[in-house]
Amino acid sequence: MSDITQKKMEQIAQMWNARGKGLITHMALEIEEVSTEGVRVRMPFNPDFCVDAEQSLLHGGILTALLDSVFGLANFVAIEGVSTMATLDLRVDYLRPARSRADVIVQAHCFRKTRHIAFNSGSVWFAGHEDAEIARGTASFALTRGETSLFDAMKKGKTS
Amino acid sequence: MDVQTVNANVSRVPFFRFLNFEVRSLDSLHAEAEMTFDDRHIGNPIMEYYHGGIIASFMEATAAIAVQPDFADVPAKPINLTVDYLRPGVKGPLFARANVTRKGKRMASVSVLSWQTDREKAVAEGLYHFLLV
């Protein structure tokens, strides 16, 4: 974590924990590890995200949403001077049925960044079962460079 | 399979209730659905855009219903997906239309289009595969 400035860490913590509404808040994501090499995030089990009556089988879509969110975080950490970013495309392979009430762990990183585009990949598994990946995803993001950071834009509110 | 029966099935799936959508029309190869905007769907809290993962989830749900509208227990098993995000999904209803391009014995391929006020201005386009066995 030494390659991340304390300031940036604080910004990330604020951005993710103090936004108050939206899916990321609802997923109650906890950041476990952050570096320019990649990020690891934990999503606590939530019965709302299941498809079965017993509420032990997660819908694939929530894993897709999780990957999309964590890719955004990985880009924010790995790339300096990004004002906004938008998901361009996303591919997810569902490798196993996501049947468990364990927390979900996502590991993601930005494997290539250019002026306009960031490329990401990530893996998903249940806590304690790192050897049994349940999903894997890749995505590309369109970056808008600028002085105003994503965090500053969020603090200032809707200005554009 | 009538729309009322399918919506009754939809309302039994916890995650489908979380998404909060209703099937509007259905035939042997298509399904069309409408999702109501909610704060928990937001990805960008400043602009109040839909989260890309919510759009992909809604499209997956619509695709699964097009493939297996009469699902008994859980919706059709997804294998993988690719989504192209074309425009931001703004605050308001979101629509999806799933078209089953091929349904074999073991696999189905489904293309899905998502839009808001104008069908010609797609928010996202996706391809989904399902395992039928």
Structure explained in plain terms:
The complex is a heterodimer of chains A (160) and B (133). Chain A has 4 helices and 6 strands, in the order ααββαββββα. Chain A has helices at residues 6-17, 23-27, 60-78, 150-156, and strands at 30-35, 38-43, 82-94, 104-113, 117-126, 135-145. Chain A has a 6-stranded antiparallel beta sheet with strand order 1-2-4-5-6-3, with helices on one face. In chain A, a hairpin with a 2-residue loop joins β1 and β2. Chain A is globular, with a radius of gyration of 16 Å. The N and C termini of chain A lie far apart (34 Å). Chain B is α+β, with helices and mostly antiparallel strands. Chain B has one domain (3-131): Hotdog Thioesterase (Thiol Ester Dehydrase, Chain A), CATH 3.10.129. Chain B is built from 3 helices and 8 strands. In chain B, a hairpin with a 6-residue loop joins β7 (107-115) and β8 (122-131). The radius of gyration of chain B is 14 Å and the shape is globular. The interface between A and B is large, with 42 and 39 residues.
List the helices and strands and how they pair.
The complex is a heterodimer of chains A (160) and B (133).
Chain A: H1 6-17, H2 23-27, E1 30-35, E2 38-43, H3 60-78, E3 82-94, E4 104-113, E5 117-126, E6 135-145, H4 150-156
Antiparallel strand pairs in A: 1-2, 2-4, 3-6, 4-5, 5-6
Chain B: H1 3-10, H2 14-19, E1 21-27, E2 30-35, E3 42-44, E4 49-50, H3 52-67, E5 77-85, E6 94-103, E7 107-115, E8 122-131
Antiparallel strand pairs in B: 1-2, 2-6, 3-4, 5-8, 6-7, 7-8
GO molecular function, one term (chain B): acyl-CoA hydrolase activity
Organism (chain B): Pseudooceanicola atlanticus
Protein name (chain B): Thioesterase
